[in-house]
Design brief:
The chain is an all-alpha fold and 160 residues long. The protein contains seven helices and no strands. Helix 2 runs antiparallel to helix 3 and helix 2 packs across helix 6.
């Protein structure tokens, strides 16, 4: 929901987050408590993993390497966004993408380096948004593809 909202803002040409939307997200996360906030964090990592898994399959169809195709592009974009990505968090986000791109759980990859820090929360969210946008562009420019990809993945276990 948050990622889709951020993408819509980008596609609509808005550079600032909707203050009302931001307040709702902050209230929601605050209402979850520590366990719930950790679940949201795990969810963001899962989205990154799912997007990288889809991109890996798409790259393999064209004999391309997902790491070579995705990571440099996203890192270059991160460098152009100094408010969202302070220079010291870019290696962590790149490592997260590489881990997910090679089939490793981002949560388990990160766990070996310690807990997430509060300074990494916005970059983590922004990484998921950038990755969703990349999925949308690779899919042919369908602005809703990444959201549908996740929605279908979440609803498919119910169908089994």
């Amino acid at each position: 929901m948050v990622i889709d909202s951020r993408l819509r803002a980008v596609y609509d040409g808005r550079t600032e987050a909707d203050p009302e939307q931001q307040q709702m997200v902050e209230q929601f996360v605050a209402s979850l408590g520590p366990g719930g906030a950790e679940a949201v964090l795990d969810g963001a990592c899962t989205l990154i993993y799912m997007f990288m898994t889809w991109l890996r399959a798409a790259c393999e169809e064209h004999d391309k390497d997902v790491i070579e195709h995705v990571v440099p592009t996203l890192v270059a974009t991160m460098r152009m966004m100094p408010k969202a990505f302070r220079p010291e968090v870019i290696p962590t986000m790149a490592g997260l993408l590489v881990a997910a791109g090679t089939g490793l759980s981002p949560n388990l990859w990160r766990a070996q380096y310690g807990d997430w820090t509060s300074a990494e929360m916005n970059p983590l969210e922004a990484t998921a948004v950038l990755l969703a946008d990349h999925v949308n562009r690779v899919s042919g420019g369908d602005h809703d593809f990444a959201t549908r990809l996740i929605t279908e993945a979440l609803s498919s276990p119910d169908e089994d």
